[in-house]
Amino acid sequence: MPGFPHRTNQRPLQKGLFALAAATLLAACAAPGPTETVGLSPLSEATSAIAPTPTAAPTLIPYESPDWFQNAVLYEVYVRSFYDSDGDGTGDLRGVEMKLDYIESLGADAIWLMPIFPSPSLHGYDVTDFVAVNPEYGTLADLQSLVAAAHARGLRILLDFVPSHLSEQHPLFVEAYANPESEHTDWFVFTNDANTLYAGFANNTEMPRFNHYNPEVVDYLNEAALFWLDLDGDGDFTDGMDGFRVDNATFPPQEFLVSLRQAVKAANPEALLLGETWVPDPRSLSIYYQDQFDALFDFPLYSALQGGPNSPGDGVLNGKGFASLLGPLFEEQDERYPVEGLRVRFISNHDTDRIATEVRRDPTRQRLAASLLACLPGPLMVYYGEEIGMPGQKGTSPWWDAYRRAPLDWYAAEQGPGQATWFLQPDRDNQPHDGISVEEQDGNPTSLLTWYRSLLGLRRSTPAVQEGIAAFPDAEGLGKTGLLILRGEGPASVLCAYNFGDEPLDIVVSGLPFNAGQLQDLLTGPPLPVEFDPAAPYTFTLPPLSSFWLSGD
Fold this sequence. Notes:
The chain is an alpha/beta fold. It folds into 2 domains: 16-165 and 206-386, TIM Barrel; 470-551, Immunoglobulin-like (Sandwich), CATH 2.60.40.1180. It contains 16 helices and 16 strands. The chain has an 8-stranded parallel beta sheet with strand order 7-6-5-4-3-2-1-8. Helix 6 (140-152) links the parallel strand 2 and strand 3. Helix 1 (16-26) crosses helix 11 and helix 13 (363-375) runs parallel beside helix 15.
C-alpha cells in the first residue's frame, strides 16, 4: 500500500407533527447531480450493493464536539474564484491569505477551503493525489503560510476531504483499470472481470468509487487525512488543518466513517469532522452523529427555506413554505440528536443556486434570509459572494456549476489587482457595474455587505443570540409567513421576529420574559411604539418582508 511521506509536494499525476413538518417542508430535498457527466456504465446495482442504507447504532459519539465550533461562522471559499495573487486569472492560496482581513471583517471564525488537491477538473472533487496541492493554487509552503496567518488571527481552516471517490486519472486507478491482475483491483468496485466497468460517483465514470470494505483503502484514506492535520510532520497539530468537511458523506459505509473519526480524533481531539449529508428526512440525520461526525450541514432546513434542489424558490424565504412549521422541525431535531451533534445552518453553497437567485434578486429578501441565519442557534455558514448578493444558478454545458462558483467581484469593473478572471462567459450572472462588488458596497451603510457585517457582529456581541437556548413561542397572527424565535432566558433574551410575506402581520404573544418598558429593535435601533407589560399579551405589527430583534435590555 502506498505510504504518504510527510514532506512531499509531488504532483503526480414523531411524531405526527414532526412528520407533517418533514413532509411539508422537505419533499424537495435531494442530492444534486454530478457537476460533469460522461458516458455511463450500467452500474446502479453495483453501487447500491456497496452502499447499504444506514441503520441506527446503539451508541452516540464518544467525543465532545470542539468548543471552538459551537457557535462559529464558517466562510466557504472556492480558491479558484476568490483572489488571484499572481495575475494568471486563477485564485490561489496566497490570494486567500492576502484577503484574510476581508474574511475576518465579515465576522468569520473559520474558513472552509473547497478541494485544493491536484485534479483534472475545475471543481477538484476528482482527486489525482490526496497529499499534494494543486499547482494552480500554489504549493504546500503557500498552504502552511495561509494556515499560520489564519491561526495568528484566531481563524480556523477546514479542508474539503473527498473519501468517497477519486479521479479516473489517479495513478492507482489507471494501474487497475483493464488489469484484473492488479494488486489494486479490490480498491475499486469493478463490475466485470475485465476491470473495464466500475461504479462511479452518481454513475459518473470520471470519478470511480473506492471500495471502503478493503482495509487497505481505509488505511490509505485515513493516512491522507492525518497528513493534512500535521503539515510539517513534527507531531504538533497546531500548524495543520483544523478539521475536514467530508464530501458525499452518505455514501461510504458507517464502518469507514467510524474509522476516520477514530484516526482523526486520536491525532487531534480538537479537529472538526463536518459531514455533507443530503438526507431528505431530518429524522435520519441522527445516524451520522453516531461515532462519525461532530457536525452536519442542516440540509432539511435548507430545503425548507429554499425549496430544495428540485423545487428552487418554493420555500419559506419566498413566502411559499409554512414558516410556522420551522419551530417543530427545530424542536424535534433537538430531541432526536445528541447534545454534542451540531447542525450547520446555511442558505446556499457551491452545489445550489445562490440565495440571490433563489429570491429573484430581491435585496429585501436577501437581508431577511441573512437575519434569520444569524439568529438561529449553533454554527452557520456563509458562501463566498453571498455577502454582496452575487447571483448564480446551474448553467449549460460545459460549464454547469461554474455559474454558481464564479469569481468573487472585488471591483465594479470586474478588473483590478487580485480579480480572478478564469470564468467570463457572456451569459454569466455577474456583470460589470451592477452594484454587486466589494468595491461598490464596502463602506456603503445601506449595502448588503454592511448588513452582513453588522448582523454577524451583533450576533457575536449579543450573548442571548450567540449562545443562548432557542424557543419558538406560540402567538396569534403568525399565519403562514410569520415566525418567532426567542433566544436566551430571562430579561436579557432576544425575540427574533420574521415576516416572509407581502402583507403585514399583527402579532399577539404572551409569556415573554422581558422587564416592563419599551422594547428596542437591535437591527434598526429605535424602540417599538408599544411598551411591554409582563402581565399582559404583547401586540406589535410586523411589516411585510421584515425582521426585528427585540430586546428589553
